[in-house]
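Researcher: Please translate sequence to structure tokens.
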Amino acid sequence: MATLFVASGGSNTSPYDTWAKAATSLQTALTAATAGDTVVIQYDGVPSTDSSLSVDTTYTFPNGIWLVSASNDGGSSYTPTVMGTSNYIGHSSSNRSITLSPGSNKSKVHIYGVTFRTAGSTADSILIGTASNVGGMFVLESCYLWHGNTSTSSRIAVQVAAHAQLVDCTLRFGSTSQWFEVGGHTEMVNCTVTSAGSIPSSLFMVGAGSVSATG
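Model: Translation complete:
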């Protein structure tokens, strides 16, 4: 099992095993990772390719990956640290959808402390899982799902083939007409909707064939 680093100040040198050699895009590290590896992204050093996405982006995760937001402690040391609202993957002003995709059926992914952000006014979404990779399991812990897009057609969604567990996560919406769509199996534990954004009139929309639980 290896640890791969992602940071704006890295040299983008394989195998990305120190902060100095860190990959300068998240997908570069995810593509190089294999089952059981940890990918560490600097919470206050998110590469511009990820913090200012140029297009709608799908991040594809190999099975068994832990993606953790952390401080750069030098060498290959780190301390898990949430991104919060000052740092993020996505875009602060332009329309960009973000999809978190398992690399294959029944892939399992754990993400800690990462903020995913959308913006703009044309429908964009934050999508967890896909409609095709059956049984893909995402555990999001202490993540911030920041849906700054203002379109009434935008949503945060667990897609139909996915399993998702959200633990201590914060949801933020850009319109009272937006929603969290449960298309797959979803469990939410100690999650909150922040008043920093808009509070949806109807928070949940349940898709066909879904199973949901909240706590």
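Researcher: Any highlights?
Model: Residues 26-32 form the longest helix (7 residues).
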